[in-house]
Amino acid sequence: MHVAPKRTPHLQMIDGVPRSPIVKSEVYREALSFKPAADDVILVTYPKSGTHWVSQIALLILNRGQSPRDLADFVRQAPCLEINGVSVSYTSPRFLQAPKASIELLTQPLQEAKTVANKKLRVSQDHPDPDRHLLALWNRRLRLLAAYRKRGKSRRFKRRLRKIQNEIERYTTDLASEHWMQNCEQISGHIHLSKMWGILRSLLGQRKAM
User: Fold this and answer.
1) Could you give the CA distance from residue 118 to residue 31 in angstroms, rounded to a whole number?
2) What's the whole-number average pLDDT of the chain?
3) Pairing relationship of beta strands 95-99 and 41-45 according to DSSP bridges
4) Range(s) of the domain holding residue 181
5) Which residue ranges does the record assign to the Sulfotransferase domain (predicted)?
6) N or C end of the chain: which has fewer CB within 10 A?
7) For the chain, how many structural domains are there in total?
8) Does 105 lie in the same domain as 37?
9) C-alpha radius of gyration, the chain, whole number
10) Dihedral angle computed from the Cα positions of residues 117, 78, 32 and 12, in that order, rounded to the nearest 10 degrees
11) Tell me, what's the pLDDT at 210?
């Protein structure tokens, strides 16, 4: 009885890693040195799982409803890391596709990019930089709150939540007082006493400041 040989997918080996024959070795090696930016959007999918469909939806969201003009424009706006490389992308934020098999090789640069992005705080020009200690306290509170909800609202986490909440309230009160004193020192000597009292009465709601 003749048994037909088992069919296997046609693959090529790049640095000991099996990859599709359409992947160019130089582009694949370039993808391994990929450095994600803080605002990159990376779609990770298995093959034949609706990648292009989800990419089209994401591009419509990023481009405010404007669809790519043609296939070439689609590839430029949503390149696959190991097939097209990164240099073809011209959008900001960049939208990139990464096969599930490739993302394991990019775990370290993605983790490093996540750490860097979380350290960068976006603030508008109309607002001062946030207090880092207050942010650290608030992040600790959020982590405790998530653990409290996940573990059945235990008393231990409830006590820790109450403690961190009290610490946040004390620190924000001290911070507000410190900022108020700094503002007072800045205007000290630059405004007459009568106008100063007018500002104080205005803050107390007694009359408008002149």
Assistant:
1) 23
2) 75
3) parallel
4) 132-190
5) 39-149
6) N
7) 2
8) yes
9) 28
10) 160
11) 46
Asked if residues 105 and 32 have their Cβ atoms less than 8 Å apart, the reply is yes
Tell whether 197 is covered by a domain: no
Sign of CA dihedral 9, 28, 53, 100: positive
Residue type, 12: Q
pLDDT digits (tens, 9 = 90+) for 114-161: 776 666 556 565 666 677 778 878 887 887 888 788 777 778 778 888
- Nearest CA-CA partner of 40 in 100, 81, 75, 72: 81
Is 207 inside a domain boundary?
A: no
Structure-token match 């400041």, residue found: 209
Amino acid identity of residue 205, one-letter, is G
Query: Could you tell me the two tokens for 7?
Result: 């069919």
- The verdict on residue 205 lying in a domain is no
**Cα–Cα dist 43/51, whole Å:** 8
Instruction: State the pLDDT confidence band at 97, using cuts at 50, 70 and 90.
Output: confident
Same-domain pairing of 40 and 105: yes
